[in-house]
Every structure is written in C-alpha cells, then in structure tokens.
Design a protein that fits this description.
single chain, alpha/beta, Rossmann fold, Thrombin, subunit H, 5-stranded parallel sheet, 14 strands
Length: 284
C-alpha cells in the first residue's frame, strides 16, 4: 500500500497531528482539538511512528519527553528525525510536566522546534488553548472546514424511516457536518429528500440525526452514493460531541491499522527502524 497518497497538499487537506506517549490529560485535550476539527492521533510507539513519518513528513509531532525514553535519548531521537531526509520536514514540539527554563531554552533556542514547548502543569484548558494557536500557526487544518473520517474498515450504519418502511444504509464517510451513505440493493432517493430523526450507529456509539440529500453520484464498485448534510437545527452540543467522538474512534483505529501494516511491511523487507537511529538497519 502506498501510504504517501494518504496526504496530498497539506495546504488543502491539513496536517496530521501526533502526540507521542501522551499522558492522561492529553486524552482530554485531544477531544478539545478534535472538536476544533484538527486531525489528531495519540500514539504510544516511537518506532512505528517514525516509520510512518517517513511516508508523511508534513505531519506535526508533539513528543512527551517525560515517558518511554530518557531526555537525552529523546533529544537524539529528535535530532535524527530532523537530520533524516525522509523526516526532516516534520514539525516538532514538546509536551512535558517539566517547567525547567533550561530545558525549554534548549528545545526552543538550540533545536528551534517550530511547535513549541508546552508545559502541561498549566491545566488542560490553557494547554489546549496554546496548542490550538500552535496548530493554527502551522496551518494544521489547511483549507478544509471540517475533519472527515472514511469508514473503509468500520461498520457504520444508518436506520432510516421512509414511506416504504425502515431501510438500512451503510456509512462511507462522516464529518460533523454530514456524511455519505450507500443503500444495499441500490435503493434510489431524490436530491432534496429529508431523512428525519434517523439512527446512526458506529463503533458502539448511537445517536439520532436529521439531514437532507444534497448530491448523488454513481460509484463503479459501490453503486449510488448519497451525500447527506445534517440539519444544524438538530445538532445540539451533546450530538456534536458524539459525532466528534465517532470521528476520533474511526480515525484512531485506522491509524492503528496503518502503523501495524507499515511495521509488517518493514519486517517483510528485513528492515528495522531503531529509536535513536535515522538509518534503517538489517536485524541480527
């Protein structure tokens, strides 16, 4: 699989945002960032992530230097990312509970990391505010308005009441503004058709929505695809939170599969990527 096609021009689609070895508070912060439509991933394997970054060097990476490796090892890890032609474009920042001015100065002044040095002691709300400003400054969202999750491997479905009874639709992709669906058996609905109070179910999360079909297109393998925009009058804060939770679950699960596939491919090629080594080496 060519993972490089997953990210085209970051000015259009935005950049993936990785938090490496995130502490518990960052899980809360991540949901705030996702609610702001950033493409956020929490990862706990620096080797797998380094292999992925070789395929997507436009990403943003925030490293928790309090976990997994010693601070000098993290410094070497960062130096090797930035000296490797395949990953030198990755934009890096630090998250930590250590408020040492010397440590901050080292990463900001000596290493000139563009995504800053965020001290988590200030609390989740203030940390999230700083991170939002940092992500905006690095054009993390590009020109897109919202984050879209593609449901290739996830089994999402909608149950829709129609004049002919309840019909089931399969979810293809989802955002906080709408979705695209297909109906098994090729059931056609006209543009302008309103689906009122239908049930969406994905990854154990269920919610009720109202939307209208704004477009249709024929897919050569899946048949007719219907594009539905949600009625904002029915999108209260609770519904929006559930939508963002579903989107996060889908994208996080897909990234987990992607990292595993890349690692398997590297092993098949007889290559390993060591934590502090920018080069690929043959295993013993």
């Amino acid at each position: 699989m060519d993972y490089s096609v997953r990210m085209s021009d970051p000015l259009v689609l935005g950049r993936k945002v990785f938090f490496l070895y995130p502490p518990t508070v960052l899980e809360q912060i991540a949901m705030i960032l996702i609610a702001n439509e950033f493409d956020v991933y929490l990862v706990r394997d620096h080797r797998k992530l380094k292999a992925f970054l070789m395929t997507d060097p436009e990403a943003l990476l925030f490293i928790n230097i309090d976990e997994a490796l010693s601070e000098p090892e993290w410094e070497r890890y960062i130096d090797n990312l930035l000296s490797d032609e395949r990953t030198k474009a990755v934009r890096i920042g630090i998250v930590t509970y250590n408020d040492s001015p010397e440590l901050s100065r080292k990463y900001l002044m000596e290493h000139e990391l563009p995504c800053g040095f965020v001290v988590l002691k200030i609390g989740p709300s203030k940390s999230a505010e700083i991170l939002v400003k940092t992500l905006d400054a690095n054009e993390a969202k590009g020109r897109r308005k919202c984050l879209r999750a593609t449901c290739v491997n996830e089994k999402g479905e909608c149950l829709i009441d129609t004049d002919a009874g309840v019909v089931r639709a399969m979810l293809r992709d989802l955002s906080s503004m709408g979705m695209s669906i297909r109906f098994p058996g090729g059931i056609p609905f006209a543009i302008g058709t309103k689906f009122k109070d239908f049930q969406l179910s994905v990854k154990g999360v269920r919610l009720r929505l109202t939307g209208v079909i704004i477009a249709k297109r024929e897919d050569p393998t899946e048949g007719m695809i219907h594009v539905v925009v949600f009625d904002p009058a029915y999108l209260d804060e609770t519904i929006r939170e559930k939508l963002h939770l579903i989107i996060y679950k889908i994208t996080q699960a897909e990234m987990g599969r992607c990292l595993d596939e890349i690692e398997a491919a590297k092993k098949a090629e007889g290559v390993t990527v060591e934590p502090g080594d920018a080069s690929a080496e043959k295993p013993d």
